[in-house]
Specification:
Length: 150
């Protein structure tokens, strides 16, 4: 795991809150995609760091910013206030989709440089995108992707 650089206090609090909620949830429940759910705080952190990085193109910062805002919104497709940590699955899928776009049209070294998680970030993104098709159903996932691209 790479060293986690300093975020502002609000971002740190949110990062810790997500990590704590997911760990507590997984301690109590056996969730098929728990290993992916644990990536949610790392994806949040990664997107924040990419936004703050001066080398990230402004048009990519906008999409990353929208994905970060989606993480923070209390009510979304699968709201955390209703479904608890399972609600981070849609946040995670959207983050993976936006990060995949960033990698396809950007610089992978920036993503790898800021990745705080364990393992290969590319493989993690691919795994989440594959699971999204099954987890949300192809129809809903396609509508989500179209909305992101509009």
């Amino acid at each position: 795991m790479h060293e986690v650089k300093m975020m502002d206090q609000e971002q740190q609090d949110f990062y810790r809150k997500i990590r704590r909620e997911i760990r507590e949830f997984l301690d109590k429940k056996n969730f098929e995609y728990g290993h992916l759910l644990l990536l949610a705080p790392d994806f949040f952190y990664l997107m924040v760091q990419l936004i703050l990085d001066k080398r990230t193109p402004n048009e990519k910062k906008l999409r990353l910013g929208l994905a970060v805002a989606y993480f923070i919104m209390p009510l979304d497709i699968i709201p955390e206030v209703i479904f608890g940590p399972l609600g981070y699955m849609d946040d995670l899928a959207i983050a993976a989709y936006v990060l995949n776009d960033f990698i396809n049209y950007g610089d992978i070294t920036l993503v790898e440089e800021h990745w705080p998680g364990e393992g290969d970030v590319l493989k993690s993104i691919q795994n989440i995108l594959m699971v999204a098709d099954n987890y949300f159903g192809k129809g809903l996932w396609e509508r989500i992707k179209r909305k992101i691209n509009s």
